Each structure stands twice: as structure tokens, then as C-alpha cells.
Amino acid sequence: MSAFANVPAILQPKEEDIQMMLSAGVHTGTRNSDSGMNEYMWRRRNDGVHILNIGKTWEKLMIAARIIVAIESPDDVVAISARPYGMRAVLQCSE
């Protein structure tokens, strides 16, 4: 996976990681987009929905994971979801 060449070997995604992200629909964006999101867009479907770059998504997840792990007290970690379908993940994370 040459898209992940800048990621240290320990943080390289496995095939099953990518498959789980795809089956969860992590790559599906919205019809609306602004110029700040261009580097995260892979392409646009015929129906106008943007498809996110799964490699960039993985890199951002790994950065977030490294930051969270570095926090000494778990009580200092706050999980927020701006979307209704993220609520379940936030609740699971908070337990």
C-alpha cells in the first residue's frame, strides 16, 4: 500500500482494517464540500456524493489515537460526534 508510505510500519493499516472502514462507510462523504476539504476528497460519484480518501482518513485516525494514548488521565479525554450516527461510537468510547 504505497499510499501509506509516510506512516511508520507499526501504524500501517492491515487489509482487514481497510475492509472494515469500507464496510462501515467511512469513505462516504456528502454532496456539500468546501475548498478546505479538497485534500481529503478522492473523487465524486455520479450522484454528486464525494468519496473520501481512505488513506488520509487512516492517517488522521492514527494521529488522533497517538494523541489520546499520550494523555495521562482518561478523564481528560472528551469524545464528541457532530452526526447522529456517531452517537453510538461516542457512547461506547465513553464507557
Break the fold down into its secondary structure elements and pairings.
Blueprint: H1 15-23, E1 41-44, E2 50-52, H2 54-70, H3 87-94
Antiparallel strand pairs: 1-2
How does this structure look, described?
The chain is mostly helical and 95 residues long. Helix content is 36%, strand content 7%. Strands 1-2 form a two-stranded antiparallel sheet. It is globular, with a radius of gyration of 15 Å. The mean pLDDT is 83.
Quick tags:
two-stranded antiparallel sheet; 2 strands; 95 residues; mainly alpha; globular; 3 helices
Task: Provide the succession of SSEs.
Answer: HEEHH
Cα-atom radius of gyration: 15 Å
Strand order of the largest sheet: 1-2
Low-confidence stretches: none
Instruction: Describe the sheet with the most strands.
Output: 2 strands, antiparallel
- Beta-strand percentage? 5-15%
> What would you call the shape?
globular
Instruction: Look at the helices and sheets and give the structural class.
Output: mainly alpha
Percent in helix: 25-40%
* Average pLDDT reading: 83
